[in-house]
Amino acid sequence: MDELMTKPKTLPTPLGNATLDQLPAQIKRPTYDRAALTPGIVHVGLGNFHRAHQAWYLHRLMEQGLAHDWAIIGASVRVEDADQRDRLLAQDCLTTLIELDPSGTSAEVVGSMIDYLPIEDGHGPLIGQMTDPAIRIVSLTVTEGGYFLDPATKKFDPSHADMQHDAANLNSPRTVFGAMVAALKARRAAGDVPFTCQSCDNLPGNGAILADVVIGLATLADPDLGDWVAQEVMFPNSMVDCIVPATGPKERALVTDLGVNDRAPVTHENFRQWVMEDRFCAGRPPWEQVDVTLTDQVHAYEAMKLRLLNGGHQIIAAPADLLGLDTIAEAMATPAIAQFLRVVSLTEIAPHVDVVPGVPAETYIDLVADRFRNRAIHDTVRRVAFDGSSRHTGAVIPVIRDAIAAGADLEGLALSQALWAKMCAGTREDGSDIAANDPVWDDLHATAIQAQSDPQLWLEQRQFYGSIADDDRFARAFAQAVASLNEVGVLQTLETFAQGHGQALH
Fold this sequence. Notes:
Layout: H1 2-6, E1 13-14, E2 39-44, H2 48-52, H3 54-63, E3 71-75, H4 82-90, E4 95-99, E5 106-110, E6 113-116, H5 124-131, E7 137-140, H6 161-168, H7 176-190, E8 196-199, H8 206-221, H9 223-232, E9 238-241, H10 249-257, E10 260-261, E11 266-268, E12 273-276, E13 293-294, H11 298-322, H12 328-332, H13 335-349, H14 361-372, H15 381-385, H16 388-395, H17 397-406, H18 411-424, H19 441-451, H20 456-459, H21 462-465, H22 472-488, H23 490-499
Parallel strand pairs: 1-10, 2-3, 2-7, 3-6, 4-11, 7-8, 12-13
Antiparallel strand pairs: 4-5, 9-12
Helix pairs in contact: 5-7, 6-8, 7-8, 8-9, 11-13, 11-14, 11-16, 11-18, 13-14, 13-23, 18-19, 18-22, 22-23
Domain Mannitol dehydrogenase C-terminal: 298-485
Domain Mannitol dehydrogenase N-terminal: 40-288
Keywords: Oxidoreductase
């Protein structure tokens, strides 16, 4: 026993090109010659999602002997990413991806990224790289809030100080969009074709949003340049989907236990989807060879995901928080919550989702439920519930508007809003406090407390609900849901609702 306790553990193998053949046998690693790869893509925003999603799809192509002239050069415009750059360069830009599946964990090393540009004021290295005609796609994951949009119009905001600066200082811009416009200007002057601008952020119409910003900034700097960008540059819309948790001590311990010393590992669920328009002005990798869906119906896929997956997250997060549950998997293991999600998804959301070819709504609803049940993914209720004022506004409230317009069922949607209001009141059913979890929490909290006795006050938050507050049918359903939650609690209210819709559970 003592001998076993004191026996030294085998040290994990440092990740790098020189040590790939020394990794444990169960770790898959690139079979292609990384030294022979040449760049074709600059990607800005080297977070976990990009490395588990877009970089992985390209890696799959390279494993088939394809797209070896499309390797990724990473970039960032945030000085706080310098440590991440150092970590990735120290291991030759390789990443260990760990798939978290309840049936077992597996891992592979992805090698489609070959460099990470220096992060400098003025972004000279980034502009220089994007000016190179070998770069045919510039892609981004800069988060939903990184597009300099006017909060009211959701359009490009030319009055923003950073946009004003970049328009006047294209040789030394502050933002990624300024750097892109500077590189496009240089390529135009040299007579080179432009690169495609591809957003990979989780935004409906992400290509159109990116076009609005890049064309708007180019026009602000030089109207002739703006016209050229509008005519020559492509901005394909796309939909991306994969649950990728943040990397913390647990994830680092997991990769160490697998025998790899990776300073920037990524964990992910056993599901990925990428849907995009086939609109590229300088060519593209053969994405269709690795199950990327190329279609002119991206909006339908976006709407399905936004309303059934993102909306589904909000529908279960509030009752889960009120019941003191920690993870989404625990929420789905609570029958009343799982039943509530299924009934609302099938009967009140699906009728307002565009048809996606080959993907029946019920099939997608079952897929979402299975993904939410994945206990290997430690996706916290608090993370999912965060910023409900944006997430309900984007994913759930538009469905309510459609249901009202159609005269369709909406009792479950009303209950989802009553649950959100109850959560924002700040007290769980066990009496514990719910900590602030929204950028406008103070306003939500104050209104939610008053709405427990006067429900209409919650709907009068017209910045979220607009004319919904004037609909008597929805207001009655909402008030009844608030009363039930206050009188009999979360579980009984959910169970009673599900019992009234028993056929939808089967």
